[in-house]
Design a protein that fits this description.
Blueprint: H1 12-17, E1 21-25, E2 28-33, H2 37-46, E3 49-52, E4 57-62, H3 66-73, E5 86-92, E6 98-106, E7 111-115, H4 120-130, E8 136-139, E9 144-150, H5 154-158, H6 164-168, E10 174-179, E11 182-187, E12 196-202, H7 206-217, E13 223-224, H8 227-236, H9 271-280, E14 284-291, E15 302-305, E16 308-319, E17 324-332, E18 341-346, E19 349-356
GO cellular component, one term: glycine cleavage complex
GO molecular function, one term: transaminase activity
Subunit structure: The glycine cleavage system is composed of four proteins: P, T, L and H.
Length: 367
């Protein structure tokens, strides 16, 4: 069979020129690392890094019935959003499983949904199946570029190149305005636990914005950062990775995302199941694990208590900012209390761990 052609973002040539190791990620040829995962991780924690995340999907939703439609499709409170607000939410099956986790942006006359790259076709089909006649849903993923500037020095990099209002706003807000002279959505959001911005603009303006950010960030030590460091940064914060920590077999309540579920709404996909689950209590929960050594629990490893299987690891890494091996795992509710000692099966041996509260890392600069 012929090899599958990978998609490329508008910044591919910059990644190649910087010597990035390029890999297949969600059908895109993406930078895994440039100089090293740990170095790039610490750059974001202490200074500022630049991420290409243009593989993410962007949908535009508009029309008279948009608010009602999105409130039925999503678990969080869309009707309660204000213009300029960005909101994290889950999108559930009627059975309560998670179709995707995503961000919703409310503008004056439309909403933008930002979905996971691997789920973009699935999400689009799912939403179109729910979409009423008075709502227009369009896919703008291919034409939209998305860069993230993350780290405690992120605002300094953008100062003078975005509206002053963008630098004054708190997390989970956005403005629409010029970015190095091109139209953009400038959001104070991110996936790292640090202060930062996610910048949406036309792919045709990619070179201008990339070069502008590199030049503006030079005094602050900005460098591009790959997917390897993005994963360790998000896992230290216990942020979800779809396909690992959440999927259609897990519910938001089990994943600790109950704050994204507004059961007071009259109806939304999965509401009945989630209300029943909350009333009856959970049988399992996603917990944080810290290993009592440097060996890392990995995705799919079985978790045991007293020699009996009680769960499975979803994500694991060595946290550079913590200098600890950390993981997340679904475990039986009786084994989910912080301080509980559990063992992770790693071939013929065991990794001693204990349950901790999430997030693992609590010193981030996110506003």
């Amino acid at each position: 069979m012929p090899a599958t052609t990978l998609k490329r973002t508008p910044f591919h040539r910059f990644h190649a020129a910087a010597g990035a190791k390029l890999v297949d990620f969600a059908g895109f040829e993406m930078p895994l690392r440039y100089t090293g995962d740990v170095r790039e991780h610490q750059l974001v924690r202490t200074g500022v890094g630049l991420f290409d995340i243009s593989h993410m999907g962007e949908f535009r939703v508009e029309g008279a019935g948009t608010v009602a439609f999105l409130d039925r499709a999503l678990a969080n409170d869309v009707a309660g959003m204000t213009v300029g607000q960005a909101m994290y939410t889950t999108m559930c099956l009627p059975e309560g499983g998670i179709v995707d986790d995503l961000y919703v942006y409310r503008s004056t006359d439309h909403f933008m949904l930002v979905v996971n790259a691997s789920n973009t076709p699935k999400d689009l089909a799912w939403l179109r199946g729910l979409c009423p006649a008075d709502v227009r849903l369009s896919d703008h993923s291919d034409e939209t570029a998305l860069l993230a500037v993350q780290g405690p020095k992120a605002a300094e990099v953008l100062k003078g190149h975005v509206p002053d209002a963008a630098l004054a706003m708190p997390s989970n807000r956005f403005v629409e305005g010029p970015l190095f002279g091109v139209p953009a959505v400038i959001a104070r959001t991110g996936y790292t636990g640090e202060d930062g911005f996610e910048l949406y603009f036309k792919g045709s303006d990619g070179a201008r914005v990339w070069n502008g950010l590199i030049e503006a960030g030079r005094p602050f030590g900005i460098e591009p950062v790959g997917l390897g460091a993005r994963d360790t940064l998000r896992l230290e914060m216990a942020y979800m990775l779809y396909g690992n920590d959440i999927d259609e077999t897990t519910t938001p309540l089990e994943a600790g995302l109950g704050w994204t579920v507004k059961l007071a709404k009259p109806e939304f996909n999965g509401r009945a199941v989630l209300a029943r689950q909350k009333e009856q209590g959970l049988t399992r929960r996603l917990v944080g694990l810290v290993a009592e050594g440097r060996r890392v629990p990995r995705h799919g490893m079985v978790v045991e208590s007293g020699g009996r299987a009680v769960g499975v690891v979803t994500s694991g890494t060595f946290g550079p900012s913590l200098e600890q091996a950390i993981a997340m795992a679904y475990v039986e509710i009786g084994s989910s209390t912080p301080g509980t000692r559990l063992e992770v099966v790693a071939g013929p041996s065991r990794i001693a761990t204990h349950v901790v509260k999430r997030p693992f890392y609590t010193r981030g600069s996110r506003r």
